[in-house]
C-alpha cells in the first residue's frame, strides 16, 4: 500500500454523469431491496476487473489499482455471496485467490515480491480467512484450502516480528529496499492482529491467540492506540518509535475493532476484550458525521488517494462482523450501518451506467470521483445490513467449519525475508527453477545497488 499517489488520483477524478437522478432504490428495512441494490453495486465494481479476460492475470486489477486492493475487492465479493446468496462472482473470486496464493501458500507471488508490504499480504490473508469463516466454495483438493492460506500469511508474518527495534512490532515493508522499511504502522500490525485473532477463534489453537495478545499489547504500549482507543497511522523505528504520525483512518479503527471482537468471542466474553471492543467502537464516532461515514482525507486539501477511497469499505465490513461476534455491540452498530447506507446510496448516480458511486457520502449526490474503492465502499455498507440474515460464522472449534488447514503453510521467504528463496513444488517446475533463482538473484542485486546509491 502506498501513502499517496496524486497522479493516479487525478486520473480517476473524472467529472462525468453529474446530475443524473438517483437510480438505485434502497429500503434498508427490506432485504430484497438491499439485495437488489447490492447486485447493481457489485456489478459496477466487477466491471473494473479484467483478470478473467484471455491473456490477463487472474487476481490483478488494472492500473492505477495496487495488488492489495484486488485482494480486498475479492474479500468484498466473498462477503457479497455470503450476504446475498448470489453466486455470480464466485468462480472469478476463487480463481483469483488461488492464482495469487503462490506456491508457498502465503500470498507472496513472485510478481509482487519487489513491492509487497505486510499490509498488502495481510489483506489477501484476511480474504482467505473470510472464505473459511463463511464456507465459501472450497478449492479443488489439489489446491490449498482457504484456512491453509490464512495460516500461511500468519506464519510468514509471525517470523517477521521485529524485536531489534521498538521492542517488537511488524515493519510496514517486508523488503529492506522498499520505502517504509523503517516504518512500523498500525495497518500492518492490525492485519496481523486481526488474522491471528480470527485464526484463534476458528481453530482454537493458542499459538494464534498468544500472538493476537502480543500484537495488540505492542501497538497499545508503543502508543499507536491511545488510552481512549484512537488508532494512529504509525511510527518510525529510527527514533525508537517515539514520534507518531497521528493521522486516523477508518480502516485502522475497523481492523482492531473486529480483531478485538474475535478475541472477545474466543475468550467467551472476557471483560478485557469487551472493554477494548467497546472502546474501539466508541472511538469510531469521529468517522460518523451527520449520520454517515466520513474518511478524514475527504475534508483535507489533497483529498483521498486511490487506496484511501476504499477504506470505508473495510470499516463497514468489520463493523457488521463485530455485531455478530460481540452481540453487545449489535444495537449500536446496526443503526449506524443503516443510516450510512441510506446516505451512501445517494452518491451512486454517476458514471456511464448512471449507477456508479462517488466518494463522499456526505454530499448527497455523485461527486465526480469514480473507481473500485468508491464502489466497494458503498457495496460493503449496503450489504452489511444483511448480516443478521446470513448463515453465521463457522469454525473448526464448533465443528461447523470444514476448510482444509495446514499449520505449516507459508514458506520460501520465511527464514530469510530478503533472500526470496521460493521452493517450486512439482517435478515439471524443476526445469524452470534455475532460471527463476537466477532472476530472483538479479532482483536482489538490483535492490542492493538501489539502496547503496540513494
Ligand atoms: C469475467 O467475469 C465476469 C463476471 O462474472 C463475466 O461477466 C465475464 O464474462 C467474464 N469474462 C470472461 C472472459 O470470462
Ligand atoms: C506473473 O506475471 C506473469 C507475466 O505477466 C503472468 O503470466 C503470471 O500469471 C503472473 N503470476 C501471478 C501469480 O500473478
Ligand atoms: C460469539 O459469536 C456467536 C455468533 O457467531 C454468538 O452467538 C455468541 O453469543 C458470541 N459469544 C459471546 C461470548 O458473545
Ligand atoms: C498451532 O499452531 C502452530 C502455529 O501454526 C502450530 O505450529 C501448531 O502445530 C498448532 N497446534 C495444533 C495442535 O494444531
Automatic annotation (TrEMBL):
<keyword id="KW-0325">Glycoprotein</keyword>
<keyword id="KW-0472">Membrane</keyword>
<keyword id="KW-0812">Transmembrane</keyword>
<dbReference type="GO" id="GO:0009272">
    <property type="term" value="P:fungal-type cell wall biogenesis"/>
</dbReference>
<dbReference type="InterPro" id="IPR014480">
    <property type="entry name" value="Mannan-1_6-alpha_mannosidase"/>
</dbReference>
<dbReference type="InterPro" id="IPR005198">
    <property type="entry name" value="Glyco_hydro_76"/>
</dbReference>
<keyword id="KW-1133">Transmembrane helix</keyword>
<dbReference type="GO" id="GO:0008496">
    <property type="term" value="F:mannan endo-1,6-alpha-mannosidase activity"/>
</dbReference>
<feature type="transmembrane region" description="Helical">
    <location>
        <begin position="431"/>
        <end position="453"/>
    </location>
</feature>
<keyword id="KW-0732">Signal</keyword>
<dbReference type="GO" id="GO:0016052">
    <property type="term" value="P:carbohydrate catabolic process"/>
</dbReference>
<dbReference type="Pfam" id="PF03663">
    <property type="entry name" value="Glyco_hydro_76"/>
</dbReference>
<protein>
    <recommendedName>
        <fullName>Mannan endo-1,6-alpha-mannosidase</fullName>
        <ecNumber>3.2.1.101</ecNumber>
    </recommendedName>
</protein>
<dbReference type="GO" id="GO:0012505">
    <property type="term" value="C:endomembrane system"/>
</dbReference>
<comment type="similarity">
    <text>Belongs to the glycosyl hydrolase 76 family.</text>
</comment>
<dbReference type="InterPro" id="IPR008928">
    <property type="entry name" value="6-hairpin_glycosidase_sf"/>
</dbReference>
<keyword id="KW-0326">Glycosidase</keyword>
<keyword id="KW-0378">Hydrolase</keyword>
